[in-house]
Design a protein that fits this description.
Blueprint (H helix, E strand, L loop, with lengths): L2 H19 L6 H8 L3 H7 L3 H25 L3 H18 L1 H11 L4 H19 L9 H26 L4 H17 L1
Helix pairs in contact: 1-2, 1-4, 1-6, 2-3, 4-5, 4-6, 4-7, 5-6, 5-8, 7-8, 8-9
Length: about 190
């Protein structure tokens, strides 16, 4: 297998392990076992635990942005907000391990994990805040815009739980309407 393909395979195995076992319990040996390679082979891609965790978390963040946020930003402004929930639900159905790994990361309270998550969360919130930008730039309005983006991030966690719990599409759509409409009118 070409090195870049192997690296992607190892990252996917890492994401699956994060989703199943948590960040702290995932080891190089888990990826080796999942991919049918030796532990030293995994170390050749990720030379230490920190490199392994950083690479997997970066993959989780990039994949979430690429699948649930960035596509909405390419739509007309008046459609962006409404597009975020369906994109996110589809991503949760298609790639549940990525969403579970993201949720695990977001709720990890170890100081180093919190610091890593804050960097990603800032990027995520700034991307979502673009959907609320209006003509004026006062500090209060900037805070309001970012608070609305934070509400979307928070409601996304609950929406993912609804998807994973098998809640009906109608109930999820009702939830989306209750959350998004007030944010749009805010």
């Amino acid at each position: 297998m070409p090195p870049e393909e192997r690296r992607k395979q190892l990252l996917r195995a890492g994401v699956a392990s994060f989703a199943a076992k948590g960040i702290g319990a995932t080891k190089h040996a888990d990826l080796a076992r999942a991919c049918g390679v030796s532990v030293p082979a995994v170390f050749s891609y990720f030379p230490n635990r920190e490199a392994l965790i950083n690479a997997i978390l970066e993959d989780v963040g990039d994949t979430l942005m690429d699948n649930a946020i960035t596509p909405a930003l390419s739509l007309p402004l008046n459609e962006q907000l409404r597009a975020t929930a369906p994109l996110y639900m589809e991503f949760a159905r298609r790639e549940p391990d990525y969403v579970k790994a993201w949720l695990t990361w977001s709720m990890n309270f170890a100081p180093d994990m919190q610091a890593r998550y804050r960097v990603f969360e800032t990027k995520l919130i700034n991307a979502l805040a673009e959907m609320f930008v209006n003509d004026t730039d006062t500090e209060d309005q900037d805070d309001d815009i970012h608070d609305r983006a934070r509400m979307i991030v928070a409601s996304s966690a609950f929406l993912a739980k609804m998807v994973f719990d098998g809640v009906s599409e109608k109930r999820r759509e009702d939830f989306i309407s209750h959350v998004l409409q007030p944010l749009a009118d805010y």
